[in-house]
Request: fold
Amino acid sequence: MNFHGNDPQEWLATWDPLQSTGELRSFYVPFIADSAPAGRAYIGLEHVWRTDDNGGDRAYLEAHCNTLHLDPTRNRPCGDWQPLGPNLTGSNFGQTRLGNYVVATERAPGDASTLWTATRVGRVFVSKNADDSQPRNVRFTRIDTPSTPGRFVSGIAVDPADPNHAWFSYSGYEAYTPGETGHVFEARYNPATGTASFIDRSYDIGDQPVTGIALFRATGDVYAATDFGVLRLPAGASHWETAGSGLPTAAVYGLTLSQSANVLYAATHGRGAWALTLPRH
Reply:
């Protein structure tokens, strides 16, 4: 956390509650900051964890938790992260796809209660009370099916107009999960039944790792990151095409879409970050 922009001398540690758990976690942990209320953020280990105040009391963090000179005698932790509900990787959610850790978390825009999340081995969950004032009371429903891939969920894009509608991307190759094919899925969750329908939208994308996903609300077009750039699936189409021009042939490991500015940002591996202005029709 940094309350002074990106001043390199003002970074504050908030990791104590997470480090002390011993939970497994990804090399790059999934972290998202919420837009409402300000200060709320989520991070995935074996649980999804939440802070509601930028990681802790600012005065305490600045007095004891500066990363350049952490106070070794601090009398309480640097950070106030709390686990939401149960461990998502264990047997309390069944005996299939056990273990590993959370690799994707995504909030539903405009709906403070809905959170989608997934694990490295393909478990997928939805919570409809992720903003509960008591973190332990947050409930998750597991919704993946035997036909969805038991592979790394590399991205979740929640429809800004419908918190129960999302798109998923899966990394890895189908050889890792025989009988569980596909790299891009569209999901619709039914809160009344606690189940979801998944439709494979991979079409002609090929058996390649898809490393990120984004949905453009204005058109319904979907964008997928791959090891060779960014692809676009126009709304209603069944053919993936190259998105825009000018992007070097490079692995893209992150997609961020600004719905208000109509801009798609792509973060590559070693070739910089790029922006693509999207048409609204």
About this structure: The longest strand covers residues 184-190. The chain has two domains: 26-55+81-196, 203-281.
